[in-house]
Every structure is written in C-alpha cells, then in structure tokens.
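Practice problem 4.
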C-alpha cells in the first residue's frame, strides 16, 4: 500500500532522513520505533507531504505521491494524527470532527462515520458542544484520532499517541487503534517512543537510528531481539 524508496529529507542543510526505505501492506499495523530525534516524525511528515523528501520516491497504492501537496495526499486516503494532538482548541468537538471531513461530500457516509466514532468514544458524544481545548489530554488524543478518521483514511499515520497520557488511557487508545484496524480495514503506520506498547499492537516493526532504518522484523521477533530489548525495552 505504501512504499518509501531511498528517501532523503532535509531541514535546511540538516539531513534528517538518510536513504529511508520501508513498506506497509494493506491491513497491517506497522510501527516505527527509535530514540528522540531519530527521524520518526520526519518520516511521517515526508509521507503526508508536510516536509517532502528531497530525493527518493514514495508510492501510495502504486501511485507516486512524493511531489503532491498535503491536501492532495489527504484526498487520496492518508490522514495524519500529529504529535501533541494539535486539535483546534477554540472549536467545539463537533467542529473539530467536521474539519476532518472537510474534503468529503458523501453526507450519509459522514453521518455513519460520526456514529461509529461516537460509539468508540462516547465521551466525545457527551462533549460534542464543548471547545476542544477544555478536554483532558486523553480526550484530546481521542478527538485527534477521530478527526483523522472522519476523512475516511485508508492509511492512518499516528505520531506518538501515548505521549504524556496516563497508562490506563494509553491502554484504551491502543485498544481502539487495534479495533479501528480490524473493523474499518484501516491500515496503521504508528510512530512511538513506547516501543513495548507499539510492538504489542503492531504486526511488524522498523527501528530507526540517526535517520536510518537499522532493523526490520515481525513484532514478535523484535520483542525478543536482545539489542532491541536493551536499547528500547529497558530489559
Ligand atoms: P521525537 O520523538 O523527539 O519527535 P523523532 O524520532 O520523531 O523524535 P524527528 O522529530 O523526526 O525525530 O527529528 C529528526 C531530526 O531532525 C532531529 O535531529 C531533529 O533535531 C531535526 N529536526 C526536526 N524538526 C526540525 C525542524 N523543524 N528544523 C530543524 N531540524 C529539525
């Protein structure tokens, strides 16, 4: 479904991604793990067109997307949930969700997706008229995921959904990620510093160090890999 082929991405003169290649198949949850500053967020930003790669190619459903604008990429079926949620704090929950469906015209589909989201996160239904900024951190993460889902993505890019949240909320969010993947046939590309959690929910994983992919394997193998255990799992 998604293929990154030798991409190099820069911030000015700084090369943040060095020859990154990876693949995501339809229906998978894959995770990219790595330390602070390894280049995980930049990888997602390259896919969504916010920080396009300088060289290399990105294909989505067989189509090159590395030269498209972010809105064109969204319209093809890729939505990103950014690190730190970035919901619209002065818009209500409902207005935030409407923004997610901005490019859609299928009113019936939008209504159905809204019902699905309110069933997943009943708290959002209760708070639909409240400004997004008044929600707790966990509720804002739920809203950010829901806003992205309102675009009906085929591929969901999730950047550090566990960041700053209490363990019980994180567990709930990860259960929902699994549920969305299974029930909505949404492919998930998950970036996480919490490698333990991410590898438990993902089918496969990539490890990134200093802008390069250094390891790729099934989650089960990565969880039992001695180097991964030592560097990322604290075992
Ligand atoms: P984190 O978990 O801290 O978000 P990360 O693995 O997602 O880390 P990136 O945010 O992709 O890493 O950063 C990769 C490299 O690019 C780092 O060296 C970082 O300092 C640099 N970088 C990121 N954003 C910018 C920017 N806007 N301008 C300049 N350099 C940047």
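Answer key:
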């Amino acid at each position: 479904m998604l293929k990154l082929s030798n991409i190099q991405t820069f911030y000015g003169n700084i090369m943040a991604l060095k020859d990154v290649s990876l693949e995501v198949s339809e229906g998978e949850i894959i995770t990219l793990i790595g330390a602070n500053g390894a280049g995980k967020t930049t990888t997602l930003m390259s896919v969504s067109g916010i920080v396009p790669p300088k060289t290399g190619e990105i294909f989505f459903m067989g189509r090159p997307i590395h030269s498209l604008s972010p809105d064109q990429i969204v319209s093809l079926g890729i939505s990103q949930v950014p690190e730190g949620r970035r919901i619209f704090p002065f818009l209500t929950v409902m207005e935030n969700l409407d923004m997610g469906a901005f490019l859609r015209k299928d009113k019936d589909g939008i209504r159905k997706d809204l019902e699905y989201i309110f069933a997943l996160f009943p708290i959002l239904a209760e708070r639909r008229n409240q400004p997004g900024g008044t929600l707790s951190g966990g509720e804002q993460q739920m809203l950010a995921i829901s806003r992205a889902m309102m675009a009906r993505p085929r591929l969901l890019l999730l950047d550090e959904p566990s960041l700053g949240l209490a363990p019980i909320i994180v567990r709930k969010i990860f259960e929902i990620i699994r549920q969305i993947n299974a029930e909505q046939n949404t492919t998930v590309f998950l970036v996480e510093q919490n490698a333990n959690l991410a590898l438990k929910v993902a089918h496969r994983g990539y490890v990134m160090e200093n802008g390069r992919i250094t390891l790729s394997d099934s989650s089960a193998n990565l969880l039992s890999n001695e180097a991964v255990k030592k560097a990322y799992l604290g075992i």
